[in-house]
Give the backbone structure.
Amino acid sequence: DDDDDIPQLSSHTLAALQEFYLEQQEREGMKTSQGFNQYSIGSIEEDWQLSQFWYSDETASCLAKEAVLAAGKGGRIACVSAPSVYQKLKEQDGEDFSVYILEYDRRFSVYGEEFIFYDYNHPLDLPENLLPHSFDIVIADPPYLSEECLQKTAETIKYLTKGKILLCTGAVMEEQAAKHLGVKMCKFIPKHSRNLANEFRCYVNYASGLD
């Protein structure tokens, strides 16, 4: 029989696959149902191929709150490769601040004019309307734990910020973070919605509420 060589999925694997597709359909159903919040964390799912790992809701809330306080009344906030902080900030409708998201993943273009396509390989390839030193605080989470990625992202951060920087990256990047951005590690330990293998930390160059 020619069918003998065709690999068959085990009943366990098949059940797991069906469960996955069912969950996916339910998520899509939630997105189209009334009351779906396009700014909620998870509304755009992580793409691990782009090294995306969203913060936990508590961490995103804490970082968003810190950004608002640091920016001050009427402040401008830039989120560089930190979409879950951007989403949490946008949940705070009516607050007196403005925020932009700089992100490589074009799925975030659903956020309209606040989305700016960003490739850390071209750190200063930015729109003309993004004037130098025009943001009260820049929150950045470079996608890769490499000095090259941090160094190039640092160029973008230093171009955008008036002075305040909130960097989220691995604990192993402490020396490079100090070298390229003059930031120091905070006591606050950020968490992700999925556990990461690498210890993650926050770094700032100002007196923050994260200590």
Summary: The helical segments are 11-32, 57-71, 83-91, 147-160, 174-181. The two ends are 69 Å apart (CA to CA).
